[in-house]
């Protein structure tokens, strides 16, 4: 249970304060690097979730979901639900859920050609591609 | 005849001066004749609540220092950093794409939102409050992930510091819509779709045995400033009470100031100023609970840890 007024103190260093304890949901000892095809983007609060199908060399397809941020802020940056259409191929570097589920948080998300999918403050490119630096 | 001509001439000469003279700005008025605070506003800023330790006594940045600070924060928040190990990498997963913490310091370049005490820091807790905090921490130890009720109110989609009161900017969605109607000022807080209804009709506070998550707010006008006093907080929330002032200072700005005066918690009162700036609407709904996969994810992570 949060101690009273801890909230005030924590807010003094927002940039370094880990958002809702990623370390509780995801395992720093389970790094992941996935390449897959977007099947769905759940644009919901509190966090959006990118769903992708990842095909392994033997042809097996596994579904993953990768945590994102609040869509309210995304919309204000110019993103629409068409900004990451199904079929987009992305590479996700991040960490997997502690319980081993096919769930992760992405610390680096790029298109296949290495172009960064999301970068702070960038407006999206035209035609469904997201912004780059 | 001569006098009238002279006075007409004098008036004609003064007209050009009058046209160029600055008319002091005054807030538009509602139909009740009160300053109009209505609109959609954001209190976003990278200025921290407390002054960073390394700034010592420095209360204000120079223009150059402010630009440097803004650049530093922007770079820090968006750096593609792989140093620090996997735990740090995990903690730093998000950059300004997913967050909307702002990119600018406050307009007067103060180094903290806190204006009093002069050191820009929250005063020390009273021994009583320290004990309360220690007791809670002791009670929580080993139970932080028992269930949703043990998690922070923010993680439970219940309440964010954005609503307060006092209303503090946070990771994103630092947006408010103010509506005035006869006898009320109402604030819709985007994060997390809360509405503060503040009677300005002179009605008294609720009886002291009735306790509310956002407290019971009552407002009145002192000149052109709306003064809001809030009491009757429940202890389920982290806030206990503060007085807030809202003053429309320009076409696109409201000066929001609050003072926390709780002698059972803090050894001194403290005051902060957070400018609110007009923004393009609308307020976007922040439905939260039903999409809160993170909550089940965190609890599942705790169960997985326990099995180790």
What key phrases describe this protein's structure?
heterodimer, A: mainly beta, OB fold (Dihydrolipoamide Acetyltransferase, E2P), five-stranded mixed barrel, 11% helix, disordered N terminus, disordered C terminus, B: 308 residues, alpha+beta
Written account of the structure:
The complex is a heterodimer of chains A (133) and B (308). Chain A has a domain at 25-111: OB fold (Dihydrolipoamide Acetyltransferase, E2P). Chain A contains three helices and five strands. Chain A has helices at residues 6-10, 22-25, 71-76; strands at 26-42, 49-55, 61-67, 89-97, 103-111. In chain A, strand 4 and strand 5 form a beta hairpin. The model of chain A is unreliable at 1-18 and 119-133 (pLDDT under 50). Helix content of chain B is 23%, strand content 21%. Classes of the chains: A mainly beta (133), B alpha+beta (308). At the A-B interface, helix 1, helix 2, strand 1, helix 3 and strand 4 of A face helix 2, helix 3, helix 4 and helix 5 of B.
Order of helices and strands of chain B: HEHHEHEEEEEEEEH
Helix content estimate of chain A: 10-25%
Q: What fraction of residues of chain B sit in β-strands?
A: 15-25%
> What's the CATH H-level superfamily name of the domain at 25-111 in chain A?
Nucleic acid-binding proteins
User: What's the count of strands of chain B?
Assistant: 10
The description of the largest β-sheet of chain B is: 10 strands, antiparallel
| Structural class by sheet pairing and helices of chain A | mainly beta
CATH class of the domain at 25-111 in chain A: Mainly Beta
Which strand-content bin applies to the residues of chain A? 35-45%
CATH architecture of the domain at 25-111 in chain A: Beta Barrel
* Poorly predicted residue ranges of chain A: 1-18, 119-133
């Amino acid at each position: 249970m949060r101690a009273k007024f801890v909230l005030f103190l924590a807010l003094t260093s927002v940039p370094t304060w880990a958002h809702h304890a990623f370390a509780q949901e995801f395992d720093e000892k389970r790094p992941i690097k996935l390449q897959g095809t977007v099947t769905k983007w759940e644009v919901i609060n509190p966090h959006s979730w990118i769903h992708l199908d990842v095909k392994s060399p033997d042809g097996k397809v596994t579904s993953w979901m990768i945590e994102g941020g609040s869509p309210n802020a995304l919309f204000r940056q110019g993103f629409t639900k068409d900004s990451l259409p199904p079929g987009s191929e992305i590479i996700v570097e991040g960490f997997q859920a502690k319980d081993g589920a096919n769930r992760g948080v992405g610390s680096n998300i790029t298109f296949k050609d290495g172009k960064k999918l999301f970068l702070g403050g960038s407006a999206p490119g035209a035609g469904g591609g997201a912004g780059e630096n | 005849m001569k006098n009238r001509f002279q006075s007409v001439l004098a008036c004609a000469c003064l007209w050009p001066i009058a046209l160029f003279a600055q008319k002091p700005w005054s807030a538009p008025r509602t139909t009740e004749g009160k300053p109009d605070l209505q609109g959609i506003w954001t209190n976003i800023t990278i200025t921290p609540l407390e002054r960073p330790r390394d700034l010592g006594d420095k209360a204000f940045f120079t223009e150059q220092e402010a630009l440097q600070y803004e650049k530093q924060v922007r770079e820090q928040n968006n750096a593609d950093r792989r140093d620090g190990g996997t735990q740090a990498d995990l903690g730093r997963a998000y950059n300004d794409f997913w967050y909307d913490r702002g990119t600018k310091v406050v307009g007067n370049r103060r180094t903290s939102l806190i204006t009093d005490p002069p050191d820009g820091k929250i005063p020390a807790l009273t021994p009583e409050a320290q004990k309360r905090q220690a007791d809670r921490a002791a009670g929580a130890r080993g139970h932080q992930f028992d269930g949703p009720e043990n998690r922070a109110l923010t993680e439970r989609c219940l309440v964010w510091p954005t609503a307060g009161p006092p209303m503090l900017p946070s990771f994103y969605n630092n947006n408010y819509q103010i509506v005035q109607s006869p006898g009320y000022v109402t604030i819709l807080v985007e994060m997390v779709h809360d509405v503060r209804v503040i009677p300005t009709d002179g009605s008294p506070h609720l009886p002291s045995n009735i306790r509310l998550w956002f407290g019971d707010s009552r407002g009145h006008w002192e000149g052109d400033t709306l003064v809001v006093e809030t009491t009757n907080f429940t202890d389920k929330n982290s806030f206990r009470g503060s007085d807030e002032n809202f003053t429309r200072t320009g076409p696109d700005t409201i000066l929001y100031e609050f003072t926390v005066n709780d002698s059972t918690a803090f050894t001194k009162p403290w005051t902060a100023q957070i400018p609110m700036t007009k923004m393009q609407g609308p307020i976007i709904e922040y439905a939260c609970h039903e999409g809160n996969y993170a909550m089940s994810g965190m609890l599942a992570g705790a169960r997985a840890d326990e099995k180790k």
